[in-house]
Amino acid sequence: MNNEVTKEIALLLQNLGVEKNDINWGTQLTILAAIIIITYLCTKLFRHVVIPLIHKITARTKAKWDDYLFNTEMMKAFSRLIPPIMLYVLLPFAFSNSPQLLNFSLKVCLMYLDIVTILLVGTFLNSLYNISNEHEKLRNRPLKGIYQMIKLITIIIGIIILFSIILDQNPTNILAGLGASAAVLMLIFKDSILGLVAGVQLSANDMLRPGDWITMTKYGADGYVIEVSLTTVKVQNFDKTITTIPPYVLVSDSFQNWRGMRETGGRRIKRSINIDMNTIHFCTEEEIQAFIQKGFLDKKTDTSEKIVNLAVFRSYLLNYLNNNPKVNKDLMIMVRQLQPASEGMPLEIYCFSDTPDWIPYETLQSEIFEHVMAMAPEFNLRLFQRPAGTDLQS
């Protein structure tokens, strides 16, 4: 191939009136300098004329993807292809009389072209990642790990091609040699391979998105996912510490994702208080009349049937929750008894706040149970708690 190119160049030089034997080192250096100047001018022309023109065209379009695909970084990476390509084409004119030097120069150009191509693919993948972050359906997918894996594959292929250029070998021969050491390569890139498989599973099954609140007690993670990459998932805990978890652990082990709670628009309140069972009794006539006067019982209530004060309290609390503007009425609201224990009769409040935000949720929960504890004596009920030293003293 090089011999054919050299013959064609020699023929071209003869047509221009330059004999092959007349080309000395001075002529070669002059031609080389001219080639370098032409390459430099073409690169500068592309960067200062073509790139601004492309930016003006993309700025006029309504689509956003072209702004990312033809951004400054992408166009600079593309401009790096110009010098090795032009030098590869023009260098035979300078070294037509020096085949060994020409062969070495062309190898250097190919190596340079291989490196800048790897950089171009990396920049292109960064642009694709930015485009996917702008897409409504893709922005919440953990795609960063997949893009990183494609980059890694590109780098590996680029290194193989680089060695094939240096050794004058077919890339397939080098790949065949690497196949014999596949076990070693799999051991080296074990985390990357597992991370890629886990990333695909997390994305396909919609198990995890950046911004999700997850809890994984085994690894000390309780906070928001800030990044999902090829080898790590970063979780910012509520104390502002960062926990890193391998992606494949999220597939093999269980974790709690609170996204459903946020999408529902409410957060569950599920807490109980213990009622002293000695204070649970049938209401007397005086108690029933007092409950009617206070509005705890309807005036039309059949007083001939026996009424338990705890049942009146439960009915009151259920009505209180249904009329509380901070309680989500679209989700379950319930007041129930749990299994009696040595600490008394547990009375559980089960409802949802109207917001998933933490501070309003805790405020509502506190208000509800402060009200429950303050109202219990109104129904002649006493809350159970273990006696303290002051109780024994009194």
Give a brief rundown of this model:
By secondary structure, the chain is of the alpha+beta class.
Characterize the structure shown.
The chain has 394 residues and is α+β, with helices and mostly antiparallel strands. The chain has 3 domains: 2-139, no CATH class; 200-262, SH3 type barrels (Roll), CATH 2.30.30.60; 265-386, Alpha-Beta Plaits, CATH 3.30.70.100. The chain has 16 helices and 8 strands. The protein has helices at 2-15, 25-60, 65-69, 72-79, 82-94, 99-134, 144-167, 171-180, 182-188, 190-204, 247-252, 259-264, 285-294, 309-322, 358-375, 389-393; strands at 213-216, 221-228, 233-237, 242-245, 256-257, 268-275, 334-337, 345-352. The strands form 2 sheets. It has a 5-stranded antiparallel beta sheet. A 3-stranded antiparallel beta sheet has the order 6-8-7, covered by helices on one side. The longest helix has 36 residues, at 25-60. It is elongated, with a radius of gyration of 38 Å. Mean pLDDT is 82; it is low at 12-22.
Name the features.
394 residues, alpha+beta, SH3 type barrels, Alpha-Beta Plaits, 8 strands, 58% helix
The helix-strand sequence is: HHHHHHHHHHEEEEHEHEHHEEHH
User: Which strands sit side by side, in order, in the main sheet?
Assistant: 4-3-2-1-5
User: Gyration radius, to the nearest Å?
Assistant: 38 Å
Strand element count: 8
Strand content: 5-15%
Number of helical elements: 16
Strand count, sense and closure of the main sheet? 5 strands, antiparallel
Q: What is the overall shape?
A: elongated
Quaternary: single chain
Count of domain modules: 3
**Mean pLDDT value:** 82
Helix content: 55-70%
Low-confidence stretches: 12-22
The structure class reads alpha+beta
The end-to-end span amounts to 107 Å
